[in-house]
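RECORD TYPE: inverse folding
INPUT: structure tokens
STRUCTURE:
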């Protein structure tokens, strides 16, 4: 399927003004096929402030942020770019997103990541509730980003188009999170800076398969493979070798400083699809674990079979930081998918349902990106 080209600019609301939202505001403003018409904020102090100010653009956009959900729905936007935090309120956010598409607004969202793929994680009746809401509102919901998202769904599946035989697909995030600002994720979910005997939710049995299992299942579905159930989880946490201060949490020597985990999909007991994260808060730590070939982080795709293939995908911002660019690529994957999602069938849509998504119109000096 070829990419979707809208006949006129699509009217877009950005939902949140934080880590992802501020970059989404800039991304929508820069896109020639999109028009920013509204911004939602959860912070009362931001209500009434111009979107350009909240995004740090140094200029006003003439769009004021609001805490009023219904005010934004009443604008009848073509799509909402939803970048609000969902990791600590998964089912509440599913209810929020379902209500939006029932109200007739298409949504692209960075979470909850459990919705990256339709099958095998949530009960089928919950997915049907989303689909029914989409049919009622004639609107679609697409959850994606960079990880879970492009780096471990579209990229590896595109690479498999070069394969003659596939024995094993492994997708990895290898990153230093010391400059990543998300205190809830870093301290409460991962447990960085907490005693090694603490029990953050992320490491409870089954949680990794809930959060990242949809990625493993999506790759398997794209390759027409039926996996054994349940998925297999491996976790290795290590203490910090020295005290360090990160953007989100101070980490004392001996408290949790790094983790490596895997979610593995097997067929008849043989690993066929593996998702791995190697997450450091000190770039010099754990030299025996996988490292990026350059910079502070990468996404790695390894395909065993005929031929053997490996790709390292790296990114960094104009001013060097890979965690800032991580938020940008997350937002842009969603933003650039808007025309395809608006044109998609109602209900929950995944990368397997969408046509080619590109950065069409964003080449500078061609009348596109500003």
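DESIGNED SEQUENCE:
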């Amino acid at each position: 399927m070829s990419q979707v080209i809208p006949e006129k600019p699509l009217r877009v609301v950005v939902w949140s003004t934080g880590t992802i939202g501020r970059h989404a505001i800039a991304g929508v403003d820069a896109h020639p096929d999109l028009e920013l018409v509204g911004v939602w904020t959860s912070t009362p102090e931001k209500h009434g402030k111009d979107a350009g100010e909240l995004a740090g653009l140094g200029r006003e956009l003439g769009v004021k942020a609001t805490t009023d959900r219904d005010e934004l729905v009443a604008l009848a936007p073509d799509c909402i770019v939803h970048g609000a935090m969902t990791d600590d309120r998964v089912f509440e956010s599913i209810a929020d997103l379902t209500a939006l598409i029932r109200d007739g607004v298409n949504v692209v969202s960075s979470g909850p990541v459990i919705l990256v793929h339709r099958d095998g994680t949530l009960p089928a009746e919950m997915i049907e509730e989303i689909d029914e809401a989409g049919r009622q509102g004639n609107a679609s919901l697409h959850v994606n980003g960079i990880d879970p998202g492009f780096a471990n769904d579209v990229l590896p599946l595109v690479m498999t188009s070069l394969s003659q035989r596939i024995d094993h697909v492994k997708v990895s995030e290898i990153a230093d999170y010391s400059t990543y600002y998300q205190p809830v994720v870093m301290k409460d979910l991962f447990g960085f800076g907490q005693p090694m005997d603490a029990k953050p939710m992320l490491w409870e049995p089954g949680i990794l398969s809930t959060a990242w299992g949809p990625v493993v299942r999506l790759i398997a579905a794209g390759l027409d493979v039926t996996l054994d159930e349940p998925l297999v989880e491996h976790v290795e946490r290590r203490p910090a070798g020295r005290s360090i201060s990160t953007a989100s949490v101070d980490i004392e020597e001996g408290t949790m400083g790094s983790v490596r985990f895997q979610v593995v999909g097997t067929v008849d007991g043989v690993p066929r699809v593996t998702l791995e994260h190697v997450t450091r808060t000190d770039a010099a730590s754990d030299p025996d674990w996988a490292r990026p070939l350059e910079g502070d982080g990468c996404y790695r795709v390894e395909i065993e079979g005929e031929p053997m293939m490996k790709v390292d995908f790296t990114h960094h911002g104009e001013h060097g930081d890979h965690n800032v660019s991580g938020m940008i690529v997350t937002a842009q994957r969603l933003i650039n998918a808007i025309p395809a999602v608006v044109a998609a069938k109602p209900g929950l849509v995944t990368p397997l349902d969408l046509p080619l998504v590109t950065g069409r119109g964003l080449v500078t000096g061609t009348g596109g990106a500003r």
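NOTES: The longest strand covers residues 165-176.
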